[in-house]
Design brief:
heterodimer; A: alpha/beta; 5-stranded mixed sheet; two-stranded parallel sheet; B: 4-stranded parallel sheet
Chain lengths: 168, 162
């Protein structure tokens, strides 16, 4: 079976599995790029891992589309180690109360990636074992990769060290 | 001074100040604070080709207690700034600071929320080096500027201001 056939077969299988919950499917790029219904994310990921052998979750990242509807996107980049197929799985979520089910119970590697998405966009991952900030200080109030956040940051929002050493 | 003639050969007289400044300026040991790509140039500065040892900066000391000049090489994030300040506070006086490269001096191309826009926001910087990254020659030049500063500073007797 050639590589091209594997990809077509995969897209067919996904179409058959998801039906109407497969909102958009693009193959114009080097890899299949599918947008699915948020409610079926968890079971689709489990199916992809167990039935389609996508055992390698490369990355999870978010985007801010800055639209009034379905503002945020969470994208899962995974590889099937049997056919060497790469798949980009996308879901869209609204700005109010952005909550996504976690996939850490399927791929453990999602743990830090989801924490990073939470840190940068404020998207909550339901069921995540350790939903803390990844890079920014624990008490930081902003989400830096949201479009409305200023490039240079909010002046004075992160503390600099004191320039007067303690006189012991 | 005129004392040499009275004391004979083998003696010379000087002031405490010039002796102290001479010895300080020729034993400026760097504390390498390598944070990014500038650190590679800083290593070249210490290595055999550019050879900072010629100027008395004999060894890079990774212990702040044993060093005199901190070379901040690379961009500094807000999280790192606290560690740098802590190390700076651990260095014994007298001490000097070099901000190496565009990022350490001004934030450089990292004009974003996570990077301190110049380490002079929390450190008393003596010499800034331009470049991205600067050549090791520039770091030598900065070292010579530090030496010049040491030689021209006020009397060391005024240092004890307890």
């Amino acid at each position: 079976m050639s590589k091209k056939n594997a990809k077509e077969q995969l897209l067919e299988d996904i179409q058959a599995y998801l039906g109407a919950d497969l909102i958009e499917s693009k193959d114009g790029y080097a890899f299949p790029n599918i947008l699915i219904n948020k409610d079926r994310l968890h079971e689709t990921c489990r199916w992809l891992k167990n039935e389609q052998h996508f055992i390698y979750l490369v990355d999870v990242f978010g985007t801010d589309r800055f639209t009034s509807e379905d503002r945020f996107e969470v994208i899962y980049n995974m590889v099937c180690l049997r056919t060497q197929e790469r798949l980009f799985l996308k879901i869209r979520i609204e700005e109010e109360n952005p909550v996504v089910p976690t996939v850490t119970d399927i791929w453990k590697s999602a743990n830090w990636n989801e924490r990073e998405v939470f840190d940068m966009f404020g998207i909550q991952f339901e069921g995540h074992p350790d939903m803390r900030r990844m890079y920014m200080p624990e008490d930081y109030q902003y989400y830096p990769l949201r479009k409305e956040f200023p490039l240079i940051g909010v002046p004075g929002s992160i503390e600099l060290p004191s320039t007067t050493p303690d006189k012991a | 001074m005129g004392l040499e003639s009275a004391m004979g050969e083998g003696y010379f007289t000087t002031t405490m100040d010039s002796l102290t400044k001479w010895s300080r300026s020729n034993a400026v040991w760097p504390m390498p604070m390598g944070l990014a790509c500038c650190a590679i140039e800083m290593m070249a500065f210490a290595g055999p080709r550019y050879d900072a040892a010629r100027f008395g900066s004999e060894v890079m000391r990774f212990s702040p207690r044993q060093s005199d000049v901190m070379i901040v090489a690379g961009w500094c994030s807000y999280k790192m700034s606290h560690a740098i300040r802590r190390i700076w506070d651990q260095m014994p006086d007298p001490k000097w600071c070099i901000a190496m490269g565009a990022c350490a001096s001004t934030g450089g191309m990292h004009r974003c929320y996570g990077v301190v826009q110049g380490v002079d926001n929390f450190l008393p910087v003596d010499v800034y080096i331009s470049g991205c990254p600067p050549r090791p020659d520039s770091v030598l030049n900065a070292l010579m500027k530090i030496q010049e500063k040491i030689r021209n500073e006020q009397s060391v007797l005024l240092d004890t201001n307890e």
